[in-house]
Amino acid sequence: MKLYKYISSVLFIALFATACKKQLDTNPPFNFDEEDIKSLDDAERVLGGVYAKLRNVDYYGNLNSSSGYSTLPDIVGDNFEETGESLGALVLLTYWGAASDETNIENIWRAAYNAIVQANFVINNVDKFGAADPEKANRIKGQALALRAYIHFDVLRYWGENFDEGGAGKGIPYKEDTDKFTLPTRLTVGASLTKIWTDLNTAMDLLADVDQAINTSTRKSNIDLNAARAIAARISLYQEDFDNAIDYATDVINAIPLARLADSTAYRNIWTDQSSIELIWTVNFDAGQGAPGSNIFFPSGNRSSFRVDPLLRATYTTSDIRLGTFIQSVVRGGVAREVLYKFRGRTGLNDGNVNWKVLRTSEMYLIRAEAAARRNSAGDAVSALLDLNTLRGSRIRNYVPGVEVGQALIDAIALERRKELLGEGHRWFDIKRTDRVIERNSGDELPANDRFWAWPIPFAELQTNPMPQNDGY
Fold this sequence. Notes:
The protein has about 475 residues and is mostly helical. It has 17 helices and 12 strands.
């Protein structure tokens, strides 16, 4: 893969930093090499570098870039429509016309594999130092394995042909070593998922036996056992493994309660980082490190490149606490327009700099509801509706419980996913794993057989590591 260029640059940075250490101890925490790991403490510092790489502008960070795994899936789906204030930087992705030489696609691919390589530094070296403190080693290696599984799954969501564990469709390369000369082959979807589950299952085993709590009640910036189970619930839903989706989601729901209507202030404060209610895992940003969501609404520049789809906007009633929390009217040049206000910044600030909420208990309720409704065994419709009504009743004042059944229930759950998870990076993948058809309010349509449902392997990657390209490119 093109990863050898990344690893070479990491080696250079590490050597340069070592040479200058007596003068300036500033070896950046996100650019380590496996030779920097000489103890468990070193391994933990390198692990911190993996989390730091998720702040890349092409992963969760933004600063008006692609933000490939945060807000972009809502843009390329149907939750937003482009405005006259857009600079058109994402036009080839927004309107599904990108080819293998599209820069944003290459950057999104690279951001993921750069983080994977750093995770491999930890995974492949931590055991050397674990005998003296095995539970600490479990805590470090478990997180690194969960991160490697999670990031590979993110890549599979864009570049894989489907999400069928037994599928023979084209999947992704699975990078498990740190050798710059080793170029992994492209696996099938089924083989890719087998690798993902091997890492994730091992991670959950390790994270169940650690030396100390990984997160606190107010800081959820690392993957602990609850977060690993939440990842497992998400992947299980994609694979239509409804039994495991329900079981994993239930484990998380029992551990981290949903924000209820009585917690409405705390729920609103999630988005200004004043509250950690129902948060499972966040990627934390300090000032200047990024502005998740700024490719939709850039508050510092007072520019809204995308607005919420009007038909989706109309589904939020005035009794819904999410309406004013997620969507607000702002004035520019004397003209008011509605914007995605969800990621505007921390309290008193308007810079778009907030922590990225990767996993929330709300999603677990929606996973469990959808899995039950689609499994459709005895009692499933009742439990699915109960979960859906619990979530809606936690967001809407004076809510009258719904009575949907059958396809209407499945459709209602899908709508609630759009409303609750607006802008959080789910919509494109939800369409891909279910309907595989987009009909936007603007009239733009993407049929089920379009090539863009599986993104092209970047041209630069193919030049270094030849592998089968997705159909149509």
